[in-house]
Amino acid sequence: MSLSASDLTIRRGDVPALTGVSTSLSGGSITAICGPNGAGKSTLLMALAGLLEPSAGAAALEAASLACLHPRVRARRIGYLPQEASVAWDVSVANLVRLGRMPHRDRGEEAVESAITALDLQPLRHRPASQLSGGEKARTLLARVLAGEPEWILADEPLAALDLGHQVTLLRHLRSAANGGAGVVLVLHDLAQAMNHADHVLVLKEGRLIADGPPQDALSSEIIADVWGVTARWLGEPGARALVTG
Ligand SMILES: Nc1ncnc2c1ncn2[C@@H]1O[C@H](COP(=O)(O)OP(=O)(O)OP(=O)(O)O)[C@@H](O)[C@H]1O
Questions:
Q1: Which SUPFAM superfamilies does the entry link to (predicted)?
Q2: Residue 70: which domain range?
Q3: Nearest CA to ligand 1 atom 6
């Protein structure tokens, strides 16, 4: 199972947001997309979800260009959580999560309940979405993606609004989804989370792919200095590394 970009170039407005990006992501693993503000992370994630038309090159699921997949088929296979997701309808938390089954046109009660449990939403299930805190809303929208049981879970900064406990729970859930065969692709600003939890890291700078490989290579001190302009070194053991700057 693979999701790939080949020589992908995307212009957004007058800006070349991505230039000549080629990579291949495997199912059954967690990929982190990292880079400074404006580097093209969200653009790449949207393109891999089939939501942006390339100016050149292509994004493909297995051998099929995403541009050729029917939107409902694509939505069934690729779940996408945008960076600033909003709630269009003021429905209850449980009903919002149920909307994740729309591409399947079924109730999928088991998947819905499993997503509600995974994101610890049981106590909030009857709450109107308009009354949720930022982190509660983020968990609900992520549960909606998980309820669709996509082969690919693409999430733009899914941990940013979550407290530590919910970050740990979500990372465990994403790891178990990957162990079950799903491909997980996350935009992450926290390089320690990428180092400790991803199998594969892509680093973007000014729309170009600078590094593509295992976290210890893609997030080396040299690359951090080049891309973020920060002197930093890693401490600790693999899987529990901390980044010290300065
Ligand atoms: N809707 C848009 N219209 C025009 N330009 C855009 C649009 N969205 C993004 N851009 C530009 O495209 C480039 C890449 O943006 P993108 O959102 O992919 O960056 P990012 O790496 O996700 O940044 P951040 O870390 O700040 O979220 C930036 O120069 C940005 O200003």
A1: P-loop containing nucleoside triphosphate hydrolases
A2: 2-88+150-245
A3: 12
Query: Would you say the ipTM is above 0.95?
Result: yes
What is the position in ligand 1's atom list of the atom closest to the CA of 157?
27
CATH code, domain with 43: 3.40.50.300
Q: Which residue has the tokens 């999701």?
A: 3
Residue 127: inside a domain? no
pLDDT digits 0-9 by tens, 196-226: 999 999 999 999 999 999 999 999 999 999 9
Ligand 1 atom with the smallest distance to the CA of 187 is 22
User: Ligand 1: which atom is nearest the Cα of residue 40?
Assistant: 18
Contact 54, 21 (CB under 8 A): no
What are 65's two structure tokens?
Answer: 């260009």
Round to whole Å and give the CA distance between 50 and 46. 6
Q: Which is nearest to 224 in space by CA: 239, 243, 237, 207? A: 243
Angle between helices 134-147 and 109-118 (to 10 degrees): 150
Nearest to 203 by CA among 3, 8, 21, 11: 21
